[in-house]
């Protein structure tokens, strides 16, 4: 049985921290009741969304993107998982790249170019 299919047995929640390659500290992986106070201030939970067409992937609901605390303007349903199982947002910790729909990428790029470097 895959990890994704076992998540409901852990009360539907897990959390992990993967440190940078350059940091010599251990990461962690916690499940269900063990989550307790594991979240930093300001962190929120994003429930996993089940997709019958792709049951072995981690889908999450995403309502938008932000840059520097400001929401990037774009259609709200651009990341929506349809009832027929198309679209949506997959979280894949084994992938080193992020892909976005072209419209979302352009909006994020435009918003990022407007923010001054810190």
UniProtKB/TrEMBL annotation:
InterPro entries on file: Aspartic_peptidase_A1 (IPR001461), PEPTIDASE_A1 (IPR033121), Peptidase_aspartic_dom_sf (IPR021109), TAXi_C (IPR032799)
One Gene Ontology MF term: aspartic-type endopeptidase activity
GO terms for biological process, alphabetical: proteolysis
A Pfam entry, by short name: TAXi_C
The Peptidase A1 domain, residue ranges: 1-118
Family: Belongs to the peptidase A1 family.
Name used for this protein in its record: Peptidase A1 domain-containing protein
Source species of the chain: Acer saccharum (Sugar maple)
Lineage summary: Eukaryota, Viridiplantae, Streptophyta, Embryophyta, Tracheophyta
